[in-house]
Prior knowledge:
By secondary structure, this protein is mainly alpha-helical.
Amino acid sequence: MISAVDSLHQLFVAATIVEGIDTPSVSLPQLELAGEGENAHPKPAARLWHSILEGLRYCWNDVMLRTCFLYWSAVAFFIMGPIQIALPVLANQLGDSAGTFGILIGCHGAGTLLGMLMSGLLPNRRFGNLGRTILLIDFIVGLLFVPMSLVVATWQGAALLLTIGTLGGYLHVAVYTWIQRQVPAAMLGRTMSIFMFIFMGIGPVSAAITGWVMRSISTSQLFIGSGALLILIVLLALLGSSMRSVVDQPA
């Protein structure tokens, strides 16, 4: 889209120059006005980058947003990779890889939907405040990752992933609601784009690193390590950041 706009712009400038050659008496004013128009109306690419930088600046200057986004980035890096890479390996170890993998992923998805439903039915259920609730749920998820290393039957993994998905789904609705109330309408689109990039952008990087790490460690070790790292991140956020002070904004 941007390249097409640039091409049209170049054709317009060329046509203006040709017209200026045909009419020398008005060529200089025409070119000057064209230059003034370019300065007054930046190219789409320039406006896009300006908008992105403005969104990043806003999120960084807001202490609560900066704290939450850094925390979620760390969680995404250490958790999304194991879920994307280790689960297919676990399904293969349990037997029928395709069917087992479908059951595991399906249970995680069903748990996520159940958690979203629960969050809608119990929107104000908190452990103190939103920040402490997030930390508590992530701590529990970290603990649940450890028994994933001991799974020897499909139903065991399905039960654990159903629980993990339910906890995650409950947080999804709470976090989305908090962001929409925390951020002004003019900055909401850019803020949500950054929030989505945390998971869409960091997830593939985490998966690639996880695949490389699994050349040296077992699936059980990966689940234990990921759970331990998530617990460590939660403790560091609890003791060394303002994450525990995040509160729900009034509607």
